[in-house]
Design a protein that fits this description.
Heat Shock Protein 90, about 45% helix, 18 helices, Rossmann fold, Beta-Lactamase, about 750 residues
């Protein structure tokens, strides 16, 4: 009798010899090892596909926030330049302009040199012939732009007087450059149309900026008019004046949702299929768009899925081949996958923080770069109004009210510019050892009056509190700002605002997650039991110009100013809030371990009569209008004034006039800045008094956000009274330089 055949793992089950429980379990594990990974992979592939597209949309939206802000500021600058040109030409007819062409050309050329976004400025008469230009003198009188659309829309009244028109990209008839015009109609005496002021803008200015933004992984960024005319695009297109066809995806999407949105379309320029996002600029018929190639998103998704396969296939084969160890191996791989996902989440969070920081830095650089010119303009406006008020003591009530309204508007503009500098971390700070408990106690009465009777103010002061190192004036403004924000979040019936102080330690894990140095800090926390913030508002709370208050009730710069000041002081800001649960803002300032501050606060000196201000002042200012105002103001105060427009002229005057007592110089000047001028002047005249004036410090007299030791500074915009007090204090020796002890 033959022996019975043995069972083999690969043979079919024998009905006469049913499989053992171990065999059935093995077969179930093998089947599950094949089916379950396929199900998991398919589901994960679908979810990952959707996630990649959501991230693509978010990436486009984040980019457009920066690009739109940049474009809006540029066009607002063009509008301001056009109005400045209008003001310069006010009261001049065409014959007067031609007679003064050389002087006007120099003025326009100076504007273009200061502003990289302005390539040229042209002024045309009502017959479309040029009167004056920034780029050449004399202008070609025979040039005729009456066939240009930007001239026709103003001549025919299509664009309302005082409004801007943005042309399509044009090819220049003089010089052959490529540009588009931001134009405004000229209004003469008794005539609605006297010609056109045209600000020329080269698309390359926008392309260079967009090229930097594209480095973040985007495919295209475009500046485009509402009618489809392309103004600038990165990457560059060869044909100038290109316009999208009527049925393009952009025009279709804008017709459906005019302000912003997303759409997918084949590009009318290169035929590639992309996901696009678009945003309309406020007050301008212009859009910014950003595109991401569909193949790029799909490639990223495929790479993710391949990485999953890389881990999944060995695991599946291991389950099939090693059934006894498959479950243990699966558990180990699941643990590894959990660690991988946690690491991926951590990296994504870090990347999101980095993107937000880069965005805040880009906006800060943009706003800070304009502060110097704006503060010069505000100095002229405020100072001239103050002189006008003094020289018109007999003005009637209406004239006095108009002048006072102008002064108030200019001061509000100065405060806005200062807040922008605070956010951009460009404000000069005068830090000193700070007792936070004493600061909060000293502010309590002011805060209670500010918050009102319906709000209960509580202070919880920590015992044994360390000292910090910060500018006390800015710290007081920060606490007052946060307290007012807390009050505005409370209902009309009132509520509670709490200010706490404590010692704190930020460990390595927290520091790595939030981009701050680990170590010991002094904590100041401002809390309220108000309405709280939704996650979207919380995420954008520190962005400049973002506000949830009603129109006209907030600039959106309060928390931005707090953010900039704390960061510039080497600290950290953390915001906690939930809807209906209130808000807490925590400010961390580094612990100060140095010597006690020996400085004594000296009372502000009183202004002496004009007759007592008999010193000789050397005034150095490259901006002609600021120089003229300062000269007149100092002259009215009784000083003898010698004015110079450059460092070389100032040194020559210093050599010729040994009676000069004080050097009053701007910081930011071409060729040689005020710091270097002062150093050379002091080398020649060690006894010379020096006062700097500036509206944007950069790094000439400020380093790491702190004023250089031994520095006397008055910030623009300033009034006649402020400069009088400053010069009197320095000349009399009542005011010590910044960074030195007061005796």
């Amino acid at each position: 009798m033959s022996p019975a055949p043995t069972a083999d793992a690969g043979t079919a089950p024998d009905p006469q010899h049913p499989a053992t429980p171990a065999e059935r379990t093995l077969r179930l594990v093998v089947v599950a090892a094949l089916i379950l990974p396929l199900l998991v992979f398919g589901t994960g592939a679908g979810l990952s596909y959707q996630s990649h597209w959501r991230e693509a949309r978010a990436r486009l939206a984040r980019t457009l926030d920066v690009v739109r802000e940049h474009a809006t500021k540029v066009f607002e600058t063009h509008d301001l330049v056009a109005r400045q040109v209008q003001q310069a030409l006010h009261g001049l007819d065409d014959a007067d302009i031609r007679a003064r062409e050389a002087d006007l050309h120099l003025s326009l050329a100076a504007m273009t040199r200061k502003l990289a976004q302005v390539s040229d400025i042209w002024v045309f008469d009502r017959e479309a012939h040029p009167l004056v230009a920034a780029s050449r003198v004399p202008v070609p009188r025979g040039l005729d732009v009456s066939d240009r659309t930007y001239f026709q829309v103003h001549r025919d009244g299509t664009v309302p007087p005082g409004s801007d028109h943005i042309s399509e990209v044009l090819s220049g008839r003089v010089g052959g450059t490529t540009f588009f015009q931001v134009s405004m109609a000229r209004a003469g005496a008794g005539e609605p149309f006297s010609g056109v002021v045209a600000i020329s803008v080269e698309p390359a200015y926008f392309r260079d900026f967009y090229a930097q933004v594209r480095a973040g992984g985007l495919d295209t960024i475009t500046l485009i008019r509402a009618d489809g005319a392309i103004l600038a695009r990165a990457p560059e297109i060869q044909a100038s004046g290109q316009r999208l066809p009527a049925g393009s995806g952009f025009l279709t999407a804008v017709a459906r949702a005019a302000e912003q949105g997303f759409y997918e379309a084949h590009s009318a320029i290169d035929g590639r299929e992309r996901l696009y996002a678009y945003r309309k600029l406020t007050d301008y018929p212009v859009y910014v768009t950003a595109g991401l190639d569909r193949t790029t998103v799909l490639a990223e998704w495929r790479a993710t899925m391949i990485s999953h396969l890389y881990f999944g296939v060995p695991a599946t084969l291991g389950l099939v081949l090693l059934t006894l160890t498959a479950l243990r191996r699966t558990r180990r791989e699941s643990l590894a996958l959990a660690h991988l996902r946690a690491e991926t989440a951590r990296r994504e969070a870090s990347e999101e923080q980095l993107r937000q920081a880069q965005k805040m830095e880009a906006v800060g650089q943009l706003t800070g770069g304009l502060a110097h010119d704006f503060n010069n303009l505000l100095t002229i406006v405020l100072g001239s109004l103050e002189l006008l008020q003094k020289r018109m003591p007999d003005a009637d009530a209406r004239q006095h009210r108009l002048m006072q309204n102008a002064v108030e508007g200019a001061r509000r503009a100065a405060i806005l510019t200062q807040r922008l500098l605070a956010f951009a971390r460009r404000q000069p700070l005068d830090p000193r050892p700070l007792d936070a408990n004493a600061l909060v106690s000293g502010l309590s009465d002011l805060l209670r009056r500010t918050l009102g009777e319906t709000v209960r103010l509580e202070t919880v002061l920590g015992g044994g509190l360390w000292r910090s190192f910060a500018d006390p004036n800015q710290m007081e403004s920060t606490l007052l700002n946060l307290a007012v924000n807390a009050r505005d979040a409370l209902p009309e019936s009132g509520g509670r605002v709490t200010i706490e102080t404590a010692n704190a330690h930020l460990d390595e894990v927290y520091a790595a997650e939030h981009g701050v140095a680990a170590g010991q800090y002094v904590l100041l926390a401002v809390s309220d039991n108000g309405s709280g913030m939704v996650p979207e508002v919380l995420r954008r709370a520190f962005e400049p110009f973002y506000t949830t208050k009603d129109q006209g009730k907030g600039t959106g710069l309060g928390l931005s100013q707090v953010y900039g000041f704390i960061k510039q002081s080497g600290g950290h800001v953390k915001l906690y809030s939930e809807p209906g649960q209130g808000t807490t803002v925590k400010l961390y300032l580094p612990r100060y371990t140095g010597l006690e501050d020996t400085r004594i606060i000296v009372p502000e000196p009183k202004l002496l009569p004009v007759a007592m201000a008999s010193a000789t002042v050397l005034l150095v200012e490259d901006e002609a209008a600021v120089r003229q105002f300062a000269s007149e103001a100092l002259g009215d105060l009784g000083y003898r004034v010698l004015a110079a427009d450059s460092a070389a002229s100032a040194l020559a005057l210093l050599a010729q006039h040994p009676e000069i007592d004080l050097l009053l110089t701007d910081v930011i000047m071409p060729e040689v800045n005020g710091r270097n001028l002062a150093d050379e002047a002091l080398r020649r005249r060690p006894d010379l008094k020096v006062v700097f004036m500036t509206g944007y410090t950069r790094n000439a007299i400020v380093h790491n956000g702190l004023l250089d030791p031994g520095t006397h500074l008055i910030t623009k915009p300033f009034t006649v009274s402020q400069v009088a007090l400053k010069l009197q204090a320095v000349l009399s020796g009542d005011e010590p330089p910044t960074g030195e002890p007061l005796q």
